[in-house]
What does this fold into?
Amino acid sequence: MAEKREQFRSRLGFVLAAAGSAVGIGNLVGFPVNAAKSGGAAFLILYAAFVVFICIPVMIAEMSLGRKTQRNPLGAYKAVAGDSSAWRFGGWLSLITPFMIAVFYQVLTVWLLGYFIGAVSGNLEAMSAEGYFGEFINANGVFIYLGVLTLVIGIVLKSGVQNGIERLAKVLMPSLAIMLIALTIFVLTLPNALIGVKYYLVPDFSKINLSTINLALSQAFFSLSLGMGILITYGSYISKRESVAGGAKMVALVDTCVAFFAGLLILPAIFVFNPAIDTENLSSSSVSLVFTFLPKIFLSLQGLIGYVGASIFASAFFLLVFFAAITSQVSILQVPISAFQDELKYTRLKSVLMLGACAALLVIASMVSFGRIEFFSEFLAYGGKVNSFFDLIYDVFYETILPLNGFIVCLFVTYRWRKSNLDKELITGDEGYDGSFTQRYVNFALSTFVPAILLFVFVSTVLMKFFGISVL
Ligand code: PHE
It folds into this structure.
């Protein structure tokens, strides 16, 4: 028996849940590091411009498609274009992408939980030693963390959109904001912090070139959870009385503020540790930064605040990122769950159990691909090297496919569903949208340069990642 489609209780509930999805490892770690390497405030300005001019229109397109059709991404494409139309391909992509990203992200969330527990139990020193990370990911403990996490996320998802996701976001998002602000204020009071602030806030436009532009756009797109089917799905739970465009702008604003504050926290922390640091050499991978670099930074605070103080700081930071990751994780898993509910008419419990089981198998396959089992560790050769199962998911779904999904959404909404229907949906719950500047801009952007840019980013990433050809 299918259950009645739920709705977010309030606009605030929706904004918090969607911001919970958007705020993740991307904001808290990816953004600060990319900004550090790419001209500080110059990168920030570029990033903010992409959020406003490119990402907000795509957010609005995804959310309205979901609200109009009251479906998951696959159902949404089918509802508009018909069951056998080739557009279904877009729907399938927006279903498989989030599922695979969920697998990858679950591995990271498990590690964050492990690092939080490690810091709380006084292991910060060991955690910052060379080689700790490699041992940690191959130790048996990760499977226990995986079990606990799967259970918690399963319970939230089983409780539904209102009682699970919305409620979780209402608790975790404000706590996250408080922790982020408190940690930032604390870091700013430490010696040398101002060097970091200056480094961050004084723009260096000489660092901006085509590849930093590409980086800023990909970062913005990823950070707002675009191209993952999430906003189509969340859109389907927004009440018809609410303004979709207003909600999208709020979510973008919260997400960008969190990224900004994360920069204000991480960069000064790095400079406190080592005022002469050469940020060019920071690894570009968020993974190695969170798990190998940051523990060292946190440990170095012990000279100022003692080992206990440094451990408290590290615990608070890992908890912060863990919270951000959990709210992202539930949002992304809700996509295939809603597809099971809508398309196969499964109950919520059955959908959660089926998907949970499939996801857990793939997560385990990823977790043993760091040397434990050769088949998964040396899964596929491409881009001039042998890659693990985990690398493959990361490269295909995390790094490559999102702009393609965004490109398809833009074309679908403006040329298949049509602008007049998009307009109608956006005016529902928001009379003021009719004739507004936002309306004119969104319609123009979605049907012209936004899909063109996304296609370009997609093609250049494929050439780079899989064929080693650099276009930029
Ligand atoms: N916006 C998220 C981030 O910045 C991306 C994401 C969302 C990843 C949902 C996974 C699931 O990390």
